[in-house]
Fold each of these.
Amino acid sequence: MRYLIKMAYDGSEFIGWQKQKQGRSIQCVMEKALEQFSGVSVPVIAAGRTDAGVHALAQYAHFDYEGRMTMEQMLRAFRRWLPDDIKVLQIWQIGNDLSARYQAFERHYKYLLSKDRDPFNRLYSGFIPHLRISLKPMQDAAQLLLGQHDFSSFGRLNPEVPNHICEIKEISIVEDEDYFTFYIRADRFLHNMVRRIVGTLANISHFALSPDTIPKLLADKCPRQNLVTTAPAEGLYLIDVKYPSELLDGRGTCRFDDLIKRKP
């Protein structure tokens, strides 16, 4: 049987989602926890592979399990075996042919850009030194990113990704006393795409460039441009992933919030 989980994690002490030969990855920690309580070693496949230092408020992943544990028992076991910087929030039983990665049709990120260097929040916000940034120029330029475009200029070169077409469905920026907060929702994202969009919008504001700079960058399709800089990973949060309603509707589920209301 296949299960889908929703989880949150603090990415500060991880090398990213994907397990590698060295370093502490979220995938590796999840798979070890699953093996501890199930007795079997199975892969845990995420909706998206976040980079080192990137956080998630709502990451989704699936795994296969044929044992006798109920979803409530599995949720309790994850609670016991996972470290403090990862929390499984909800679990569903889904069809064996469904995938956390390939059935996702929308992903939603938030980026927190600090106006000043913050020693107490440096692991949870990005800061770009030497830039003077204001809200309106970034908002104006951001609107030209909406829609379907070839985002080669904003992605990291990867020969294994033949298609660089993405559709940004929503992009907004709000400002408060200490931060600019970017919200970006799209059908898919290229590697480093959100961070490069944030860095580019900050550069456009700092250098007082026209919003028309965005269409020119998109048309150029070159990721090695001076204006396209990558904002720090620490400010990036995966905040939601959307699936077709039929994937989860009517499926058995167990939530962490329901679990803690009951006696262990």
Note: The chain has two domains: 2-102+243-259, 106-239.
Amino acid sequence: LTRADIIERLQLQDARLFISSFDRPNIRYTIVEKREATAQLLRFIRYEHLGDAGIVYCQSRKKVEETAAWLCDSGIPALPYHAGLDARVRQANQDQFLRSEGVVMVATIAFGMGIDKPDVRFVAHLDMPKNIEGYYQETGRAGRDGEPADAWMCYGLQDVVNQRRMIDESPAEETFKQGLRGKLEALLGLAEATDCRRVRLLRYFDEASQPCGNCDNCLQAPEVWDATDAARKLLSTVYRVQQMSGFGFGAGHIIDILRGKVTDKVAQRGHQGLSTFGLGADLSESQWRGVLRQLLAIDAVAVDAQAFNTLALTAGSRAVLRGEVPVHLRVAAPKTGKHRTLRTGSAALPKVAAELDGAAQACFAALKAWRASVAREHNLPAYVIFHDATLAAIAHNAPQSLDALQGLSGIGARKLEAYGAAVLAVIRDEAAAVARV
């Protein structure tokens, strides 16, 4: 629900609005072109968040279970969560996610409401959400402890097709469908953006901001090319095959015509005789799918779900065909097979811990191991005992007394009484171990 929806449904007159900022500056937003989604997810986790807790959202229950199994087989501890699982299994998986460290929960949107795990380091989407509100809510489950976190999404042509089809096939009133399409188009605009993602996201919620310098577009400005002529060629081909054959064709066939490929279907229909045949041979299939994805995003072409997902022109096609609406696309990143160095040791630590020296990092690791042991013994989430930031402060200051320990942020009287002596014992043991080296 939006603010306007709430005001309308509650019939509030001259309601006063108190609005806090929607900005989550510790979250880095990244949206990548979908190629091999599960493999891309695995690389993201291995090279950015190895050993971290995270949430992966998928659209279907089947995909949840397949993705969780894939991650487990690849050495990433992952659990499935969706409404179709036995209630006891769901609860057990949720408890393990909350109380263990480094567990990845793969889930439908059924997971997340009421979940309070501050140290979730990433939220990933293997399928595009329905709207920006859903995207913001789901990504907002990352980094609630204020430490750096990632919101990562894998997005492709089929996501657009699926979301538009679900709206078109909905039994809802057409006016309601139009609202859904508008919300989807706002999310597509965020996904296709070549400027700051945070600025785009906050603008949707009527909040102005400056470029964040931290999202994927700010960190590496995408190279952009003018795809207006290519878009006109694609729409012209959609129109011409419809006129010639009396019905539409799918994306693959349209792209084959543009690239000049004489497939069996092209030859059977005589489409090699079209004036647009081969006019797009200079672009790869991936580039053409990018053009089509952008046209779907701006509603300049549609996928007819009732006619085997064939392409059809829309009211917005005319402006593109006339060259009145420019189409600019990012240049797809090459598949080089090169990746950043695997995050291990201090590189995988939270920001507050990564700044510690060697001895303090060893103490931090020992404190985390102690915390995990206590959490298992008392069946508690680890963060309920102490947050990572508190453990890092303890490791940095190495207090030698209960009074010194109590002076640190995050340690009140109750926690001092419950855990103070044990924490000091860990510090002494680590100091002794360092002295022996």
Note: Residues 336-349 have pLDDT under 50 and may be disordered.
Amino acid sequence: MSRSKSTVPALITCEHASNAVPARWRSLFAGSEAVLAGHRGWDPGALDVARALAAALEAPLLAGSATRLLIDLNRSAGHPRRFSEWTRSLPRRERDLIEREWWLPHWRAFASCIESAPGRLVHIACHSFTPVLDGRERRFDLGLLYDPARSVERHFARELSRRLKERFPDLATRMNQPYLGTANGIGQQHRRRFGADRLLTLELEISQALVDRSDWPRLAGELARVVAEAISDDAGYGVSCASA
């Protein structure tokens, strides 16, 4: 992807990039291979877009290297679903070890990137979602998750949505679906710590139906290009100039 480096500080994350189980805890998941391979175990395709986006922007990429069922990097400390049913009943010392080795480094690196950025940092978290959940079909392809109360996020999401619809007229884009951008997560938690002048955070949700397409590698690159250009252009919606 040929694109000059963005002058806007950016950070790309992919919390559910992998369904790997570290050797120490592999026995916990014996017989659960199908769950690990499915949408509960990881976000298929999300890392493809995250890597392409980070490369286009020459931005750092923070990606999880273990399944979310070990510990969910997109859940805050103390959240009841940070540990799954496979790890929730482990002794406290084991859960503390998992937190120290897998969860804490990701969150510390995230905060460090914001603190060291010269101005507002634009954070894009790449995720994917199952097109059918609990028997209900999700009839859209892309979701943009943001905080409507932050005008800079609202303007950026609208502009990005416009660009995505222009580039991909056959793909349906929805705002704050399949989840709310204000739901518990790494971006939402850091909004509490950093004002809108320091952090713009948005989650890009991609239907796994797209990932199953034969042209997914090309589509992943094009999706990343549209997002990267929206960040790099820093046009009238004001990624770097809006204050709230």
Note: The two ends are 32 Å apart (CA to CA).
Amino acid sequence: MRSLQEAILAALSLSSMLVSRGHEAAVVGGAVRDLLLSRRAPEADLATSAPMEEILDIWPGSPVLGRPPAATVIVLSRGCRIDVSTFQGKDLEEDLGRRDLTINAMAMVPDGTIVDPWGGRSDLAGRLLRFTGDPVERLIADPLRAVRLARFASELHGFRVDQGSLKICRGFASRVAAMPLPRIGREVLHALEGDLPAFLETLEQGGILDPILPRLKGLSSSLRDTLFSRVRNACALTADPAVRAATLLADEGTTATGTLSAWNWPKSLSREISALVDNLTVALDGGDVRTWARLFRSRGADWIGKLSLLGFIYSLNSEPDTGIWAQRRVGSIPFIIRLQSFGKRITGEEVMALTGLESGPEIGRIMEDLDEAVALGEIRSREDALKWVSSAGGGHSRKSFSFPNPG
């Protein structure tokens, strides 16, 4: 396992190379903060007085993100990603002054000395999150910093948000609403990994919750309280991002898919969340055996466990209550166990070969009937299933045919 300092040490080594060429260079931002908090940083940022051309001369062929003057060169060192950029401003102090929060506005020079012109160490000690310098200037430069303030409140346990910074955020709600949705989505995705309730509460205190989740606009305080309670329960019960996100977005119903797409979240995660939201009523109402069989085949047993957990989270705050939810959960478990224990499923090609039917809706119906029979325990082996399919090809369906129990 890598040490806490691995990324810092790799970045300091690169900074020494730049200093040897007559340039200023320092590790900046989150890696320095995380080192002081004894948190592992997987990567580090390096700021230097060297122009972009010389950075690329030292590390030729390195990928470049963005455009000058904000371009970043990605260098791999000791297995760590180091993002190297030219100072934003005339020197290191001005570069640090343009960063979002004081705790992210510290630097470390090659000999290990901490450079802290904005009080970051003091704020770390006081567990305080506040903007660097003039909050208005920071938010004019990038209104999304209001959302990042909330995200750090979720990420750094026990930190409090500076009230002056929150007050300034309230005047930037319209600008936050106009930010590109993928940037907003990236911050929400990060917040899922931390204290999501703290993220939402900070957004609300800063007057920017509605721009992030427009569906909340106009909701009564009781409905907001219910949502916050569900999110708190979800975060207490699981760290799974799909369940947490589905809890947050479930009331959006079919529009949740559009929100996830606009946020540009990873497609596999978005599909998982959308499926949870779309099938919440199954978890709450119980669902019939055919529905559980279909969901098992399309999503798998692990996903069904997440759906059931989402139903439990909802049952804590609304009808049906947890007792009814538990009864329905107990009723569905045998179906899932039988399907999971059955082994290799009969394929569509096998169904066509056994029945003489061509590919089409009838093949799908037979396979769904077969899954239903397996879930009900009427078919217990692959051999039985093949015989069942042969009979199905003769016009039988699950409702009119049940293979005898072995014995």
Note: The chain has three domains: 6-123, 126-281, 343-393.
